[in-house]
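Before the break, one more example. Copy the sequence into your notebook; we will annotate it together after we see the structure.
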Amino acid sequence: MISLSSEDFHLFIQSDSLTIIEFWSASCFFCVEAEKYFMKLEQVYRDKCFFAKIDVIKDLNLANKYQVIKLPTIVFFRNSNEIERITGFKNKENAIEKAIRLNY
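Here is what the structure looks like once it is written out:
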């Protein structure tokens, strides 16, 4: 999963393919666990959607703009529009995969 800066972010979410962004921090236990899970999902859905992450410590302004309050926050975009959001990771694996299948 690639790491984006705020400059890359805006270009990345313009895709007409489903784009999944994880707002995360290395100091967040569930974010680190989610990273492993997203690496698996990226392999399964690599032809259908894009995955990337934003470090909220490095890009606090972007996290504030998208009202990221809880970590991790997973935001689904298409054509620069937010189409779904999942906050937290514990027991959310099914919800994340369901959101991918419904939106790709």
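The chain has a mean pLDDT of 93. The helical segments are 6-12, 29-44, 60-65, 93-103. Try to locate both features in your own notes.
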